[in-house]
Amino acid sequence: MDPQVRQTNPPMMMNYPQPTQWTQQQQQQPMSPNQQYYHQQQYQQQQFVDNSCSGPPPPPPPSLPPQSNTMVAKSQSGDHTGSLTNQMTNLSLNNGQPLQQNDTLKSSLQNGQNVSSSSSLPSYTNQYPTPNSGATYADSQMPPPPTMAPNSLNYINQPSKQQEFQHQPPPPQSAVAAAVPGNWNQNPIKTTIQQQQQPVVPSLQPPTSSAATGYQSNNAYDGQPQQQQNGSLPLQPNYPQPSQNMYQQPNSYQPPQQPPMGGGHQQSMASMNHQYGSPYGMPTNRYGSTPTSPTGYGSMNPSQSPFNQQPQQAQNKLDPDAMPSVVQVILEDKTKYETNSPVLFTTAIPASVPPLVTTVMENGNQIIQDGGCASPLFVRPTIYQVPISEDIIKTTDIPFGMLIKPFDEQEVDRKIYVPISPSEIVRCNRCKAYMNPYNRFIDGGRRFQCSLCHHVTEVPQTYFANLDHTGQRLDRQQRPELCLGSYEFLATEEYCHNGVQNNRRPHLIFACELTETSKPILNILAANLVNIIKNFPRDSGNPESLPPMFGFLTYNSKIQIYDIVNNGHAHVICDLTTPFAPLNTFLVDPLIHMDKIEKFFEQLPQLYANEEMDMQTILGPVIEAALMSTQVDVNNWINKNIVNKVVNTGNQQSNDSIPVGKIYLFHSTLPTYGSDSDTPGRLKQKWTNSVDELRKLLGSDKEKTILSPLTNKYYIELGQKCVADYATGVELFLFPPLNGFLDVAILGELTRLSGTGSIFKFYNDFSDAFLIDLKYSLSSSFAFECVLKIRTSTGIRPNDYYGYFYSRSPSDVECAAINTTTNISVEFKYDDKLTEDEHVVIQSAILYTSLSGQRRVRIHNIALASCTQIGDLYRNACCDSIVNILARIAVNQLRNGDKTIQQTKEAIVSRVINILTAYRKHCAQPGTSLGQLILPEALKILPMYICGLLKCDAIDGGPEISPDDKAYAQLKLLGSFISSSQVFLYPKLYRIEYESESETDTLKYSQIRCSAYKLTSAALAYVLENGFYVMLYITSNGCNNVKFLNGLFGPNVDSATKIKMELPLPNLLTNESQFMHRLFKKMETERKCSYKIFIIRQGIDKTETVFRSFLYEDQKIVTRQAADSKLEGLSYVDLLCHLHKEIRVQLN
């Protein structure tokens, strides 16, 4: 078949050398801003190639092999020995060509030959039907930011502003086309750009860069991305397919607009007055008055406006607008994948760099189709081309790992479906890998060669099928395990506990503290649990299955277990030393006894309405008693014929099976009741006079004494018991009192080890948020009694795991319960050299029990291309995955007490320096000046994420937050997927304004860079989302806009001082109120959690400093007694300067 001809995407920046005459004119006479803008437009019209151009620009000089990177140019003085301030003036995207010494407005972008890596295996397409996506939120698509005024041109040499592309010339007729495979089932062929020559490069020198310097999934240096986006899909008669050429690029491509410019300088987070709590749980009564902000914690005069203040470091060093922007990268990636197809992205063999997770979330009505490798919703490696030698990985210091998310939220919404294969389970006899699309069948289909260990195994007679002329099985499209990257098998008895299959129905137990402070929680549960139970989640793979069983208990200094079936009688356990199960009918079937459940919850609040409750409570024995009660219960057996095997209560357990399920704990008091000898799990107060003593330890070398979970062995052992003996996960809903302390660092081990990792914290007015989070948690419950095993190609193996799990052996990861948000990261280690012409296969297999009680095996496969050059490694790196794993490593070291905060920060920055130094040393063009900071295109926003990591509360939190808040932040970051870790490390900041100057009722929002430099007084408000809560920051313009205030807070509010801060944001029928609530709902839907909304008025509330402390691009004033370190509170620009300085030291 003749290859198709496609139009090659232009690079993200195509700055060719400007005419000498223009350069001379610029040198002779300085230009005004308007003249600069005019010449910039003329220059771009002459030099930029239109995005509809089919072909690359002219080739570079043969002696300088180009590389796609981001470069910061040296100053006009050209002094390499001077200060870094004089050496770094502007940033541009450049293929390794040094910037001209006396021209800060131009750079040269050269594009080399496209190189492909041939594949030994064909690509497969998903022949299984995929359900259509549902409708999404009305405001889920972010509108483009407003265009800049011509006189605000500060973003040098970056064609990201919309107006720069409006007058481009038509594409030249001599554009060169690239040949791509015409069919996805053909073997990939090498793709080259005609009229260009392949330069000779050394062994460690990367191949020439792609013609496209955008994200790698569209690059043309290997054949796979072109297959993915331009190849036609072979249609099968039995399964619906998406339209052909769904990824054909449009004839005209317009990059997103660059947000407008601004200025400012960040203040640090203010330490909250102790009566107002800490940022993660700013209580409602902080709105009743303006809390004080001690000077030592970065207080500011409310009259000082944060808007349009030029950072001092930007004036002397680098222009902040010239730095790589996270917001811009997100917008560009979203624009690149804009399509009317129901399919956003299709995986291929080998896998290529997928869309950013933000693009996937913004396009929630589109799906990712399985084309032979698992969806990026399930697996995201840090690199998509694996070096054949460990020496290359050690040279670059890039972490070689992968994020594995066995289940995804879209499965709950039925947007995606992982098919259950009807086939028997076939595995390799040597490595025990499951059948996958990459195995090769030989001997007429009677044997197959394992894609991981290359061992040859006989095919069972019942699994045999003939081969076609290409060596593929004739039934390949009818078996998911032969054509898809993700699929499931129904497990046989050998995969079940003691060989007992389908034995127990999963259970959900609700345990509520019964003290004086927790009475409101009990009343809310009693009023809402009936409806929640009626809407219990069902197995998405088996909708007709039975719902989970239900149990309820309360506790204070004693334990009350309720026999709901028998009139709700309470069995009280007073002996806390050896808890036991008082009855064997604890669990209730909601299908049979719903009337008794309703009656029980109607009477529950009245039972304790007039009783004086205890002020102290327990916790550990509660969990033990609940676990024992589920073990001996006779109501949760699916097969009633084996009920007689469970005849005893107490500590005697059945050896035939274990229960599976979850315990939901609603807790509000530190468990201090009793003594250490007679009350297991009792926690001691870690302070003498007040909890404020603990705050002073945060950020110091002594903070591990209050944040390390290793200081209490009981809850670690209890969490392990939940996994090994009872397969029951734990989720914590915490309601600490004002300025309270619950020791989240220790209690959190219950959730981390059991696999859920779910901790929710609420303060005061928690009712709505509490119920939202509870419903989200119940709907995300997906699997129980899980065992995860990762198998890899010969030569590499799993080495370290990070996340929520318990591991009894180095090779297995166990979880009592897994949610759709649960994910685990793994780092790989080399055992031997890899084969150059073979794919690197990684297979994740999780054995689990579904909500219906079925035992299943879910498989996720991914095949990665191998490479021999460092350049391929950098071009195919995934920045988001790399940052996520680096953050987990840092948090894990802090929690275990292996390193101090300063040592952790130094280790993070040192690794980033190694990554960038290796790129500069091995991939930059020879002769490039040391005065230029060169960043890999795929990792150009890595420094910004690292800047956020160094400032986030999980790492840098000091006395301005509480110990529980820091422990909570560490646990969240330790197990967060990319969609969450992104917003932790770089909060989302939206500007709110009317769509036109006439101030219509319609508001709009646009995401801007997370810096005070971007705040303008013209905006009405700003909304900041940091992953823990949302802040609505009303500017002085918004405070004086009566129409905006009336629409948002009601007709009686015509001044910001009349806003009732003690009340939540009202939900009115006005356009302003509905718009704001849709935006907040969008955020909650993306994060699968509720958000507390805090209102801050400019110039009125001193909590303004809390808002400004999350502007991570700015300098942070250190609030703790930190050691003298150059890494404390660095701004984004300062961090780049520091990285550049250290890179130069290493190069010298």
TrEMBL record:
Biological processes per GO annotation: COPII-coated vesicle cargo loading; intracellular protein transport
Pfam families: Sec23_BS (PF08033), Sec23_helical (PF04815), Sec23_trunk (PF04811), zf-Sec23_Sec24 (PF04810)
Span of domain Sec23/Sec24 beta-sandwich: 783-865
Domain Sec23/Sec24 helical positions: 880-974
GO molecular function: SNARE binding; zinc ion binding
Polar residues composition bias: residue spans: 1-10, 67-139, 149-161, 211-235, 286-298
Domain Zinc finger Sec23/Sec24-type stretches: 425-463
Domain of life per record: Eukaryota
Keyword Protein transport tagged: yes
Cellular compartments annotated: Cytoplasmic vesicle, COPII-coated vesicle membrane; Endoplasmic reticulum membrane
Residue stretches of biased makeup (Pro residues): 55-65
InterPro entries the record matches: ADF-H/Gelsolin-like_dom_sf, Beta-sandwich_Sec23_24, Gelsolin-like_dom_sf, Sec23/24_helical_dom, Sec23/24_helical_dom_sf, Sec23/24_trunk_dom, SEC23_SEC24_subfamily, vWFA_dom_sf
Alphabetical UniProt keywords: Cytoplasmic vesicle, Protein transport, Transport
Transmembrane segments: none
Biased composition, class Low complexity, residue ranges: 17-47, 174-210, 243-255, 299-316
Location of the region described as Disordered in the Swiss-Prot/TrEMBL record: 1-318
Membrane topology: Peripheral membrane protein
Boundaries of every Sec23/Sec24 trunk domain copy: 518-767
GO CC terms: COPII vesicle coat; endoplasmic reticulum exit site; endoplasmic reticulum membrane
PANTHER family referenced in this protein's UniProt entry, alphabetically: SEC24-RELATED PROTEIN (PTHR13803), SECRETORY 24CD, ISOFORM C (PTHR13803:SF4)
Entry similarity comment: Belongs to the SEC23/SEC24 family. SEC24 subfamily.
The protein's name in its UniProt record: Protein transport protein Sec24C
Source organism: Dermatophagoides farinae (American house dust mite)
